[in-house]
Predict the 3D structure of the following.
Amino acid sequence: MVFKIENYIRDVKDFPKEGIVFKDITPLLADADALQKTTEELLKLVPSDIDKVIGIEARGFFFGSLLATHLNAGFVPVRKPGKLPYKTFEESYALEYGTDKLCMHIDAIKKGESVLIHDDVLATGGTAQAVAKLVEKAGGEVVMLNFLIELSFLNGKDKLEGYQTSSLLTY
Amino acid sequence: MVFKIENYIRDVKDFPKEGIVFKDITPLLADADALQKTTEELLKLVPSDIDKVIGIEARGFFFGSLLATHLNAGFVPVRKPGKLPYKTFEESYALEYGTDKLCMHIDAIKKGESVLIHDDVLATGGTAQAVAKLVEKAGGEVVMLNFLIELSFLNGKDKLEGYQTSSLLTY
């Protein structure tokens, strides 16, 4: 049987709020074979010469850590305010109403390092763009932004112009 | 040079509040070699016949996903309320003041499955105990609770009596 990643993604209606169809990746994570194969497929999409992989809180941590070890790179979590214990760079991004922030430890990325940013879903691109700015604040080079799923109808790539991007699944 | 995991753990004073010395594992994650070696060391501590590895939100997700793929098991995130999109089992646990809850998808663990629970730190044991109860609600068998770090002066193991536990580092 051919492996189809989309068979392991569950649509959950009205989450986190009415009218939104949420792409639930937990069935994929819970299946040992699907977890391995998805990691392999993601690895085909990204450059091999990477110093650090960033995972965006919290669903970007799953495949972010896996990509890091397969690429023999370090792993860096980018988190919401108040979660990282040491000194951080901060970057704001727009929400539907208001703004939110993402943080990265100031010593997480060294000057000139090649950085792969990973998240599970590319939606409006606001968080991914903020993370790219964090990497640049630290002097790192954003080599690619990689996603498991791209929701193309939200035009997230517009915010990421000038960056290389890749996604395993596009809706 | 001998690999010493403790060289990659940073003490951060007064986080998350005054008087607490926080064990920051991000320097360990950010170092490609330390990340690999720590995964190998954790694997030596756990049984190999595991169906599902649970990672506890959010720092349990890093090595939780890595352990899952190395053990050829599925990965299950246990999360705070409101984070998992599908139907969940819930379990409350005591905080210093009041209580909090943890959630797991109702179809994450199948009856009779062997489950390894992983978190970065064993402190008072409250969250780990709650997760063990979630697994048992789903009909799974808790084979072991595994931690990167045990803060033994908080006596977390008392709450986990009757369960197998293992930790890579004990303070």
